[in-house]
Write a structure and sequence with these properties.
Largest sheet: 6 strands, antiparallel, barrel
CATH architecture of the largest domain: Trefoil
Radius of gyration: 22 Å
Shape: globular
Number of helices: 4
Oligomer: single chain
Strand content: 25-35%
Length: about 220
């Protein structure tokens, strides 16, 4: 018994040291994740290579997310002159516990530029950007990165994003680009939730399920 007690006494510092090392490693990993979330990034869309029609996939896959002047958000490879790319990061959301990074903010192209909230319109399910007051009236989190790849943008733990093709008659589609070419392949972003937002199986014409991915501002 005396030997057993002595051995246990000798082991206690070792066990304590292992626990401290494990806690330190966990803290370091969390700091790394938080730093990645606070670092500005762009957002790009990807879709299943068998989804929709070939020309639709070509417009959406690897297209960038943009802020429209109408405060809605779009996926396109040929933005109109009034659009600006998402350039933001995760941020503390007042609706959640302290020390959270459950909000998403971006820099607008207003004059002067402003840091604006990203949110989902509670009525239309459109992804939008706007003021603190607009955020408070709608769904503004929790946003996060998927644990398995730390790149995919999720909302309330879900990947449920779709894009819907914008009609040729809408204002952004009438703008001319730098080469006097009208904008083509403009898609509005929605978070479709549990009701599917009318998303058929297979996906309806003019709609594509997508993944929104965090990308470097240098890419």
């Amino acid at each position: 018994m005396v030997i057993g007690v002595a051995m246990m006494s000798a082991m206690i510092p070792t066990i304590y040291g292992l626990n401290e090392a494990s806690r330190g490693a966990q803290d370091s990993e969390q700091k790394r994740k938080d730093t990645a979330r606070k670092t500005p990034f762009h957002i790009q869309s990807t879709c299943d290579l068998l989804a929709g029609k070939e020309d639709e996939r070509a417009q959406v896959h690897n297209a960038r997310l943009y802020l429209g002047s109408d405060h809605k958000m779009y996926v396109t490879k040929r933005p109109s002159p009034s659009m600006t790319p998402f350039n933001g990061h995760f941020f503390k959301n007042p609706d959640f516990e302290d020390d959270n990074l459950a909000g998403l903010v971006t820099v607008s192209n207003e004059q002067p530029p402003q840091v604006r909230w990203v949110y989902v319109d509670a009525q239309t399910r459109e992804l939008k950007w706007g003021s603190r007051e607009e955020r408070e009236a709608n769904l503004s989190g929790p946003f996060d990165l998927a644990a398995d790849d730390e790149e995919s943008i999720i909302l309330d733990g879900s990947f449920k994003w779709i894009v819907m093709r914008v009609s040729d008659s809408e204002p952004h589609m009438q703008e001319e680009g730098p080469d006097d070419e009208v904008v083509l392949g403009l898609w509005r972003v929605y978070y479709y939730g549990e009701d599917g937002l009318g998303l058929g199986k297979p996906v309806d014409k003019g709609k594509l399920a997508i993944v929104l991915r965090k990308t470097s501002v240098d890419s």
